[in-house]
Design a protein that fits this description.
Structural class: alpha+beta
Oligomer: single chain
Strand content: 35-45%
Number of strands: 6
CATH topology: Nuclear Transport Factor 2, Chain: A
CATH architecture: Roll
Number of helices: 4
Helix content: 25-40%
Order of helices and strands: HHEEHEEEEH
Length: 125
């Protein structure tokens, strides 16, 4: 497995967009930390559960730009959904020891609202 932060970040974004959580899991440190709008958690298992819940509205990820600075990688991509269309996302990933140790997520919650509403509808049915 590569230890190059950019390669790891892009493999993670690709696997997430394909909903291949078996490919995502080994890219994450067990004690990784996630910070996003309205949610902070620690641990790869809880984070994978969040990704799993997003599956029904996540069609794919269209990467637009990648910036690297040592162990830090910033990936700008469109989170493509059937309900909200393309929602611009920024993920700031930190890689150490060949695994992602932190994910900081930025997105417009208003633009993502149709997808959130669909997830809530599915959870309630």
């Amino acid at each position: 497995m590569t230890t190059d932060p950019k390669s790891i970040a892009l493999a993670y974004i690709d696997a997430c967009g394909r909903k291949d959580l078996d490919a995502v899991a080994p890219l994450l440190a067990q004690d990784m930390r996630f910070v996003g709008p309205g949610n902070t958690l620690t641990g790869s298992k809880p984070y994978l559960a969040v990704l799993r819940r997003l599956g029904p509205v996540w069609e794919r990820s269209d990467v637009k730009k990648v910036f690297t600075d040592g162990a830090d990688v910033c990936v700008i991509y469109d989170f493509v959904t059937p309900t909200a269309g393309s929602v611009p996302i920024v993920e700031w990933l930190r890689v150490a020891g060949g695994r992602i140790v932190s994910v900081t997520l930025f997105f417009d919650r208003v633009a993502f609202k149709p997808a959130s509403d669909e997830l809530a509808r599915r959870a309630g049915s």
